[in-house]
Structures are given as C-alpha cells and as structure tokens.
Automatic annotation (TrEMBL):
Signal peptide stretch: 1-24
Organism placement in taxonomy: Bacteria, Bacillati, Actinomycetota, Actinomycetes, Micromonosporales
SUPFAM superfamilies from the UniProt entry: Cupredoxins
Organism the protein comes from: Paractinoplanes tereljensis
Superkingdom as given in the UniProt entry: Bacteria
Keywords of the record: Signal
Protein name: EfeO-type cupredoxin-like domain-containing protein
InterPro entries for the chain: Cupredoxin
Length: 122
C-alpha cells in the first residue's frame, strides 16, 4: 500500500469513529457522563415540535457544551455557527460535545425547520 493510501485510510477511520461532523478546531467528542462545569442541553423532537419549547441557554465562551437530542423519527440535528451535524433517531438520541469557542447566538435545529434551542455563548 502506498503512503498516500495509508494516510487516506487512517483519516477515513478517524472520521467514521466520530459521532458528528465538525472541524478539528471544535474539539468534538461523543457524549458520555458530562464533566463538571459542562453545560448540558437536552431536548426532544415530537411530532415535528420541540419539547420543551425553544429557549435560550447561556454558555460561557470557552466552555464545554453537551447537546443531546431525542426524536420520534430520524432527524438531522444541526448546530449553526459551529457547523456540527448529527442524527437523532428513536431509541438512539443524537449527542455531541464540543468547546464553545465562538461568541454569539447559535440555533440548534432539527432539519428541516424545527428550532430546538439557542446557545448564547458569551
């Protein structure tokens, strides 16, 4: 196997091992028990609606955020501004943990158009 093929295969294995898509700058990891100080956000999508109703969650700049979404059918969850996308499905909540390294107001949506929560990073 050529060196380039080995490097490509290694990158592919790393991408497949993760639970979401993101740039390396966001330190994305899968979800498990949240570390102390982690802002944990949970929501569900039921019949196309957010449960609880969409609301804002304060997140300190540089803090760790864990977002876990349950769904009654397969949904793609997107965290805008951080370009994180992952799936949530019945019995398999979608979950992502990342470092909030950008200040602003960021929507977490179940696509195509269900606002679940807004992350207010400051």
């Amino acid at each position: 196997m050529k060196r380039a093929d080995i490097a490509f295969a290694a990158v592919g294995m790393v991408l497949l091992a993760g639970c979401s898509q993101a740039s390396a700058a966001h330190a994305v990891t899968g979800c498990s028990s949240a570390a102390p100080g982690t802002v944990t956000v949970t929501a569900a999508v039921l019949d196309g609606r957010a449960d609880p109703a969409p609301h804002r969650v304060a997140v300190p700049l540089g803090g760790t955020v864990q977002v876990q979404i349950s769904a009654d059918r397969v949904r793609q969850v997107h965290i805008h501004g951080y370009d994180l996308e992952y799936d949530a499905a019945p019995g398999t909540p979608g979950c992502v943990s990342f470092t909030a390294d950008r200040a602003g107001l960021f929507d977490v949506e179940a696509h195509p158009d269900t606002l679940l929560v807004q992350l207010e990073v400051r």
